[in-house]
Design a protein that fits this description.
With 248 residues, the chain is of the alpha+beta class. 21% of the residues lie in helices and 19% in strands. It has a seven-stranded mixed β-sheet, sandwiched between helices. A hairpin with a 2-residue loop joins strand 2 and strand 3. Its EC number is 2.3.1.87. It catalyses: a 2-arylethylamine + acetyl-CoA = an N-acetyl-2-arylethylamine + CoA + H(+). InterPro entries: Acyl_CoA_acyltransferase, GNAT_dom, SNAT-like.
Amino acid sequence: MEPQSMKGEKRPFGEPWLKVLGGPPWLRRPLPKVGSPREAPVARMSTQSTHPPKPEAPRLPPGIPSGQRRHTLPASEFRCLTPEDAVSAFEIEREAFISVLGVCPLYLDEIRHFLTLCPELSLGWFEEGCLVAFIIGSLWDKERLMQESLTMHKPGGHIAHLHVLAVHCAFRQQGRGPILLWRYLHHLGSQPAVHRAVLMCEDALVPFYERFGFHAVGPCAITVSSLTFTELHCSLQGHPFLRRNSGC
């Protein structure tokens, strides 16, 4: 509805609309003319923001040390491990396996050994610069795994032996293991010299690895203490991750 003061009322030239529209006296005062020494009042912004507060950055659970320069670190990163990551990897592995099996797939010296000889066969998942999950592998040149394959790397081999997959206890039950394994298989598939991936696991874990294209080939010749394992193979040629986007 148009204000009554605007109907038929002539506005003197040069006077602002605030005077004509009526209202309280302080609104009817004419604004200073151009060139007047008085300056127009400056609108002040309210100190209370109308926008909701920004959510706080996610904090790492207890047990994961925060970096000194967290603002420069990517929130989530996948990369090959280096010997400098050996201690962090061993701490995760020890917590994951000692309480269940009483032994570790790899001990600290063995982790350093493989990360020095073949870091390209490893993959780590980092959150704000801290290792939260990883896979370590090496090359093997025989059809089946043998006891010596636990500690040896065969540079001329075409088979990637996955020694260990471990996830930090604070990041389990979040689907990180499957995502990391898919990415690792894709990583291996980008290396022309690697034709197959092999691993050994307890019988209860066989269905998990079968979801990723592995198939059991029988009992593994390797034993650790009184533990026995099933050996699984996965061909990297024509693997599903090469034909579709897994979303990982």
